[in-house]
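FAQ

Q: What does a record look like?
A: Structure on top, sequence underneath. For example:
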């Protein structure tokens, strides 16, 4: 692993296609994902490594907006393969179990909800749509742990005054 390359990836900005009141780097996001994981489960060392490294390939690709990946499945699949190749080439690929993959995906999406909620709370009306979309996508996923279910339920109550997860 080239430490300098991996460390430099932490400053890549997310949400470059959205109007935001503050920018978030993948370093900030990855820390948030790790904190969510520590709250919803007792993560393995490999799962925490994956949380910290999962967006490092964005040093090369940039942050490809989720709506583009949702709209074009071939783009998402090609990007996933390219990012896997980058991780292998840089020596930062982390082996996860299927359950750990689900935990990481859930925590990644929930951290986006937290960021969007903070943006909306600061008056950014442009983030209402992304907040609504991603929080509803999370509701449609089975919560990977009881603590994740409780966290999402509390989030829904806080944001919407009701839980669509119950």
């Amino acid at each position: 692993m080239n430490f300098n390359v991996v460390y430099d990836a932490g400053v890549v900005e997310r949400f470059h296609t959205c109007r935001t009141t503050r920018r978030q780097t993948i370093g900030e996001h990855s820390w948030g994902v790790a904190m969510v994981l520590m709250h919803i489960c007792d993560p393995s060392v490999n799962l925490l490594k994956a949380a910290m490294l999962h967006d490092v390939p964005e040093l090369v690709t940039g942050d490809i907006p989720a709506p583009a990946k949702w709209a074009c499945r071939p783009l998402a699949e090609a990007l996933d393969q390219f990012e896997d190749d980058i991780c292998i080439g840089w020596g930062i690929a982390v082996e996860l179990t299927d359950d750990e993959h689900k935990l990481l995906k859930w925590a990644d999406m929930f951290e986006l909800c937290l960021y969007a909620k903070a943006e909306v709370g600061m008056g950014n009306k442009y983030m209402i749509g992304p907040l609504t979309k991603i929080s509803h996508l999370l509701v449609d996923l089975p919560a990977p742990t009881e603590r994740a279910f409780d966290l999402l339920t509390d989030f829904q109550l806080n944001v919407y005054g009701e839980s669509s997860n119950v």
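Q: Is there anything notable about this one?
A: The domain at 3-160 is CATH 1.10.3210.10 (Hypothetical protein af1432).
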